[in-house]
Records
---
Amino acid sequence: MEKTLVLVKPDGVQRGLIGEVISRLERRGLRLVAARFLQVSPELAETHYAVHKGKPFYTGLISYITSSPVMAMAWEGPDAVAAVRQTMGSTRPTEAAPGTLRHDFALQVGRNLTHASDSPENGEKEVALWFKAGELVDWKRDTDRWIFE
Ligand code: IDP
Ligand code: MG
């Protein structure tokens, strides 16, 4: 089953929106696999955002993600990566579709509430970066057959 990493970033945690994010992903039908509430170290932040190193917003991005705890989660489902990114909305909140998290709860790109993996390959990589194999729970829900075809 495809897996994706979701972070409720420091702004979402400070604003009390962890439950809102989880609730939307649950209602969508995705299955929670792992969760960890943590203060992100500069090392983890730099590895996670290595692809953005050198960009003008990089330094601000590292201070943003390390400024307060985050809620890190792994979710799974068919097309989990695309489904979660759709529920999050576009990177820039003013370009995010109405009804998405970033539209409904954010205004600026530097405070856009969530992270979600952008490809199945990165989903695998990021879940492995944030969680040890033993922290991923392999389970079935009674509702799975009504959500997964
Ligand atoms: P994504 O989070 O939608 O995948 P990316 O392009 O991977 O977007 O950028 C990672 C994060 O970096 C964004 O979510 C946002 O927090 C931040 N970011 C991206 N572009 C800018 C910018 O132009 N100014 C400030 N922050 C930015
Ligand atoms: Mg990204």
---
Amino acid sequence: MVVLKFGGTSVQDGTSIAQALDIVAGSLSGGLLLVASAMAGITNNLVSLVKALQNGEEPLARDLLQSIAKRHFIVLEAVARGANLDAGRKQLDLHLSDMEALVKGSLLLKDCSPRVQDALLGAGELLSTTILWAAALERGWETQLFDARAFIKTDENFGEAAVLWPETFHAVQGKLTCPRRSVSIIQGFIGSTLAGVSTVLGRGGSDYSAALFGAALGASEIQIWTDVDGIMTTDPRKVSDARSIPFITYAEAAELAFFGAKVVHPATIQPAVERRIPVLVKNTKNPSHAGTKISMEAPGSGLRAIAGRAGVTVVTVSSSRMLNAYGFLRRIFDIFDRQRLSVDLVATSEVSVSITVEEKRDLRPLVRELEELGTVKVEEDCAIVCLVGQDVWKDNSRISRVFQAIPEVPVRLISLGSSDINLSFVVSSSDLDRSVSAIHRVFFDPKEN
Ligand code: ASP
Ligand code: MG
């Protein structure tokens, strides 16, 4: 069996739902689990609803609830008729009246507790899957609608609950059934505590749900259906020649995600990684495109993708006391630790250490502490170029091609070797885009290769 996860834009209206179900039809014979997000924009509306309740803004809260309800009824009417429409309406009404009660209670108490927040935030998935269920019935399919809260077991960290894997796997096995020639439907994003209180897994959590279900059910594949043709060789908004990557390893995808390739976050597919289940990223609007397959081993070699990240600061500590001394790096890193600053790249020489951090924070307290160890230089407005590809950098000629592509760009720091799949270097922010394009052209332009 396979798990198919559809994101918000894939279930946002009647047309998208029809496209999603056409895709589902292709997997019916072997049995499948359809995992869905809330319709696009709904979770954001629910966040606004929670805020309105926190501020005691009754009219706004009521408006939001009403418009959420209306949008779902309209979509339901577009995908189901007769008895299926009635069944869908009845089920939507049940969820909406729960929401109504939560809203009313919060307004009466002038309080919106974390438990209430999670119950409301997760409602979008309950509503969207109700519509999918009615739409699947309308196609005449054997259909079962499950409640993810009975399976995904979490701690009580409301808003971003951590999944209890053993309890979840135990709950799924044997009880979440996906018979052949039928469709089983379930919500992403939501779960419940061991005591049965509703929780959510954090924004964007549906991919994680899909991976958990896939792992627990021993799926042969997890398909993430979204609105792009998979993971791209680089940011298509910046480089028009960017193209979709057919195959990528889990490790390569992890390196890329850190640099902002947002398609799927590796942390979310961890359950699939552990069970070695391939994850396929596909485009609901362009289903014939092969998309990207993420797996343990990927065919092909060479440079897989280029990512860039601006907003980086390089902090360099220099001291002659470092020469032949030990424990110096530990002292430097202790300071970063105390300042709770996450270090990205590091390069060292005998007498200096350069470290990159994200530019979000006031670094003065860090600098003050570091100055006790040596001279400190802070360079702002830097950027990291990250080149990812399994085993690429074993070949020196590839490294030289990288730097030959950008002869006039000053390079501040180079990091290679900590993993054999990633070559990263720092340039000034103003050089980022042209560096990425130039290197992309050298490695990916069919005319140049
Ligand atoms: N609906 C949730 C969100 O918007 C979860 C998801 O889409 O993955 O964050
Ligand atoms: Mg999403």
